[in-house]
Write a structure and sequence with these properties.
single chain, globular, about 500 residues, 19 helices, about 55% helix, mainly alpha, two-stranded antiparallel ribbon
Amino acid sequence: MTTHDDQALGPGSPSPSFETVLDAAAPPERSGQPSGPDRGAPDPGTMLGPLEPASRPEPTGRCQFWWVPGAATVLVIVGVIAVTLWQLHFSLLFTETTTTGGDTGAHIALPAYLQTLLSHGHISGWDPGWYDGYSLYTFYFALPDLFAAVGGWIIPYDIAFKLITVLGSVLLPICAWACGRLFRLRPPIPTVMAALTLPFLFDYTFTIYGGNLFSTLAGEYAYSFSLSLAILFLGLFSRVVRGGTSRGWASIVLAVCILSHIIPGMLALAGAALLVLIELLPSRWGFADDQVKPFWDPTPRPRVNGRGLMLWRAGSTVAIGLLLSGWWLVPFGLRQSYATSMGYANVTTYLGLLAPEADAWVLAIAGLALVLTVILKSRFGLVMSALGAVSALGLVFDPQGKLYNVRLLPLWFICAYLMAGWAIGITMIVAAQWWRRARQAQWTEATAVATRTDDQVPQRGARTGAYRRAPSWRWPPTRTPGSYPSPASPSCSRWL
């Protein structure tokens, strides 16, 4: 007779079959009873019918729906990109026509002249076209136009320029998802964050300040491209300060972000400072991203690395990024006295800017996310909340000068949309965990009833090749020696 102790498994032992587990839970045979083929026939009134092979659970530990989370993520990201390109008239992107709208009609001339500079081995130089000549790409951002100029040698120039103008909008959902993954946020939070970039792209409460599609089509395509890279950099830098990985990629992305537009580059640098500050906080505070549990949970959270090593990694990563962009950033800063101001007067209707009625829903969810940040001690939530607050304060207290204060408004909104996506993802995880606990309670109750019934089954013929029928769960049960299977398979629930 096989007992529970006989079925104790070592680390390398194979998993027992479903029938073995049920046989182990059956009561022992009484002495003196016939066994094997000489047994009497089972009592049809008390025996369950044989378990059909077609309905017998497969002895596998891998969920048969393991591909669903990945497929859902791909569908969401592709869906956001498809809707964006559809609204941009995908067919017109590949026609040799001149794009217009806002400042775009002037921007299209810059990469064309940059091709002339590149043929002489220069990226910045003197353009005689306007103002009896001016310094090209000394006070504006060269990298997006550099891509358009190089692309114009491969494909028709008009098409290359159009593709560069929409590149930042197409990359935004991908970078938002990657940021969540790099922060080690539990699925499906990164996917929901990618989905929430769609309403940000179509936000119509501002049309020229940068980030959304209205601004991109009005000439702020460099801002859109840099904003996507700033979000990606925050995810990469979170790995730098927590584990020391991705340092090279973080430096490169930071340099490209700054060279594309200085304002999202300021967001990236501010986020890097906040991440370093969080790591310097006492370790008992335990800010983390890969767990969903309240601050009163006594389970210890992961500890950070040594502060000195973390500071070296973070400082060297940012320094390398700044050095890579220094060929443009240093002249841009030193020659500001030669730059002309656009003469814009700062906008002072702060409530209407920061809390428009059309965005009340996302701001309400972002407010809920702020509460969840305090409860869950989330590093991501703290960083995004602080960045949103800094952006709003910068808009309000920006002194009148060359920096137009409303250019900081898109930073406030992208933080709000990402925080809303994080809060929705947390809600989905909590709902899924509640559902799993409810199913687990049903399973426990069902197995308890089956055990009580099994104690009352006469032993005559109790083991004549008949198996008890398991509840018809839609996933393979977990096989635990000496107990009934549980529906909470770790391989299925890992993404919940």
